Amino acid sequence: METNQESTKSAAMRIVPANQASSEDLEKIFGTRGDPGHCRCQWFQNPGKSFGALTDEERAQRLRDQTACGTPRAKKTSGLVGYLEDEPVGWCAVEPRTAYPRLLGSKIPWAGRDEDKDSEDVWAAVCFVTRTGYRRMGVSRAMAVAAVDFARDRGARALEGYPRLLEEGKKSMWGEMFVGSRSIFEEAGFSEVSHPTPRRLVMRIDFEGERHERT
C-alpha cells in the first residue's frame, strides 16, 4: 500500500505524450544499466531473434524514432513520460495493440478469448519504467491512469494490460514486473478478462459503454 507521501507525489505528477519530451529525458528514465537501459522498450516491438540482433544504441534510436521525442507537433507517439518537479521519472508504452508484433504472435494473451488481433482501435499498455531513485512513489500507478485517458482521447475502443502475478511471499526479480502489476491496472479501472497462465493476467478497460452514455 502506498503511504500518504507516495500518493501525494503520484498525484502531483505531470504526464505528457512522449513526443513532448526530449531524448535527454528518455535517457534519464531508462538509464544505461540494467534491463531498461538494455531493452529500451523494444522487446514487444521486435519478436524472435530480431531483438537480440540489435545493439543497445540501435534500440535507443528506435525508441527515439517511435516516440518522436522532441517533436511536439508529431501526429504519433508510442508512449507517455511522467515528471515530478520537472524531473523525468516515469515511462509507459501505450499505443494500438497492433504495434507489438511479439504480443500478437504470442499464444498467452489470446488463450480462451475470441479476439480480433488486428483491431487497431484496441490499444495496449505493455511496459512501465520508473527511474532509479524514484521507485515506490506511485509513479507506475499514475502512468497507468494517464494511459487510460491517453488511449480514450485518441479514439481507442478499449485498452488492455498484461500484468504478471508474484507468487505469495516472493519478491520480484529485477525487470520481471515491467509489464505492470494487477494492482496498478485495477486502480486505473481495468478488469480481469482472462487468466491464461498461473502468473499472467489479461486486463482490460472498455470505452464503448462510455460512448453510449455520452450519446
Task: Please explain how this structure is put together.
This protein has 215 residues and is an alpha+beta fold. The chain has a single domain, classed as 3-Layer(aba) Sandwich (Aminopeptidase). It is 31% helix and 22% strand. It has eight helices and seven strands. It has helices at 4-11, 23-30, 34-39, 56-67, 101-105, 139-153, 182-187, 208-214; strands at residues 14-17, 79-84, 87-96, 122-130, 158-161, 191-197, 200-206. Strands 1-2-3-4-5-7-6 form a seven-stranded mixed β-sheet, sandwiched between helices. Strand 6 and strand 7 form a beta hairpin. The N and C termini lie far apart (38 Å).
Q: What structural category arises from helix and sheet content?
A: alpha+beta
CATH fold description: Aminopeptidase
Strand-residue proportion:
15-25%
Q: Count of helices? A: 8
**Number of beta strands:** 7
Topology:
Blueprint: H1 4-11, E1 14-17, H2 23-30, H3 34-39, H4 56-67, E2 79-84, E3 87-96, H5 101-105, E4 122-130, H6 139-153, E5 158-161, H7 182-187, E6 191-197, E7 200-206, H8 208-214
Parallel strand pairs: 4-5
Antiparallel strand pairs: 1-2, 2-3, 3-4, 5-7, 6-7
